[in-house]
Specification:
Blueprint lengths: L10 E3 L10 E2 L11 E10 L1 H11 L3 H15 L11 E10 L14 E4 L8 E10 L4 E10 L5 E3 L6 H9 L2 H9 L5 E5 L4 H14 L4 E6 L5 H6 L4 E4 L5 H11 L5 E6 L7 H6 L1 E9 L6 H10 L5 E4 L7 H11 L1 H12 L1
Helix pairs in contact: 1-2, 4-5, 4-10
The structure holds NADP nicotinamide-adenine-dinucleotide phosphate (NAP).
The site of NADP nicotinamide-adenine-dinucleotide phosphate (NAP) has 29 residues, from helix 1 and helix 5.
Length: 345
């Protein structure tokens, strides 16, 4: 029994769409197609924009968040937040490999892997939510999931704590894309710089901008700014990214009015499109990694202020992104310490 390689055979509603935009997937785990992989899931990493939205909706309470996650997964057959549209990723052990994939994949039953495709398209059945970690977006579960033939996943590295690896792999696209976008001498503004992807992007931006470049890190509160100092980022500004004019003023001050060659948006809240656009110089680049980004607000907002900037949608996938993200962590003792304290201890 061969299913569609993208998983359309599991789409229940509406018919004819791919699993990500679908409203409902078939999450029957008793039937495994020959080109699917079954995973025993131990942990979910809910996408930061989704987790923040859920906490804002039901309150920052483990049980209420767990109930909301259960409600979404029972309704949709996948962890696809109906408000943000985003998912997250998971770690688990390979339980079964469909016959048609047995000789094609580089994993075997029992291997622990992290999915690198979104939970918003991954059939998921949760038996039990064991613990919700409100401060790390991670959720311990007993669950089962399906990886389609086109699915991307990585074996968990043996030299890193699994919670740390999960946290890093969740945002692997961001540091990888930053490495591609930043050139020597660039001024780079990072909005949401003290967050998980913010720290990774700040480190990579500093490395690629080099001695003649400048990194301006915008943070929500000074309390996490110490992490940025640890990785050598000295231009740290506390400003609310939903206040576009204040952000423009702050970036102008730090760049003597020149503004950013590249702006990287890694916040977990909506309404920060204009701050990103105003922070960027004419013909500069804005990289919207945040899942709370609105295409309409960005497109019409840039037009509305007459700003000719190149805007990039943060594709979660990039060639080699998992390795680039893990290597970034291996390279920096400081990031290891910061992430260890935030996601492991
Ligand atoms: P995170 O660790 O929660 O970091 C988000 C940061 O944004 C935090 O430091 C937070 O500061 C800051 N922030 C929140 N509100 C702000 C405001 N009004 N002004 C300035 N800063 C503000 O999130 P993450 O895991 O790095 O993820 C970052 C974004 O990437 C999220 O939107 C997530 O959904 C998205 N994402 C995208 C992809 C993709 O494929 N494109 C994949 C994974 C994640 P405080 O903590 O102080 O509030």
């Amino acid at each position: 029994m061969i299913g569609n390689k993208y998983g359309t055979h599991r789409v229940l509603e509406p018919k004819g769409v791919l699993p990500q935009p679908a409203l409902k997937l078939n999450n029957d785990m008793d039937v495994l197609y020959d080109n699917e992989i079954l995973v025993n899931v131990s942990m979910l990493n809910i996408d930061a924009a989704s987790f923040t939205q859920i906490k804002n909706e039901v309150g920052s309470d483990g049980e209420k968040v767990a109930n909301k996650i259960m409600e979404i997964v029972n309704e949709r057959g996948k962890m696809h937040n109906p408000v943000t549209g985003s998912g997250g990723m998971l770690i688990g052990k390979i339980a079964k490999i469909g016959k048609a994939l047995e000789n094609k994949v580089n994993v075997k039953v029992g291997d622990e892997i992290a999915t690198l495709v979104s939970l918003s398209l991954t059939p998921l059945k949760i038996e039990k939510i064991k613990k919700v970690h409100l401060d790390t977006d991670q959720v311990e579960v007993e669950a089962k999931a399906i990886i389609f033939e086109s699915g991307v996943y990585a074996k968990l590295p043996s030299d890193m704590d699994r919670k740390l690896a999960l946290a890093v792999l969740d945002v692997a696209g961001a540091p990888a894309q930053t490495a591609r976008l930043v050139n020597p001498g660039d001024t780079v503004v990072i909005i949401g710089a003290a967050g998980k992807s913010g720290i990774l992007c700040s480190y990579v931006a500093k490395k690629y901008a080099g001695a003649t470049g400048k990194i301006v890190a915008l943070v929500h509160s000074q309390k996490k700014a110490k992490h940025l100092e640890k990785i050598g980022i000295t231009n740290v500004v506390e400003v609310d990214a939903t206040d576009a004019v204040k952000v423009e003023e702050a970036v102008s001050k730090f760049t003597n009015g020149k503004m950013a060659d590249v702006t990287i948006n890694v916040v977990n809240v909506p309404n920060t499109e204009m701050a990103s656009i105003l922070a960027t110089k004419e013909y500069g680049t804005v990289y919207f990694f945040s899942m709370a980004t609105s295409f309409t607000k960005a497109a019409l907002g840039a037009e509305g202020v007459g700003k000719d900037v190149n805007m990039i949608i943060g594709n979660g996938y990039m060639t080699g992104h998992a390795e680039i993200a893990l290597e970034t962590v291996r390279e920096s003792k400081e990031i290891q310490e910061i992430f260890q304290s935030l996601y492991v201890n």
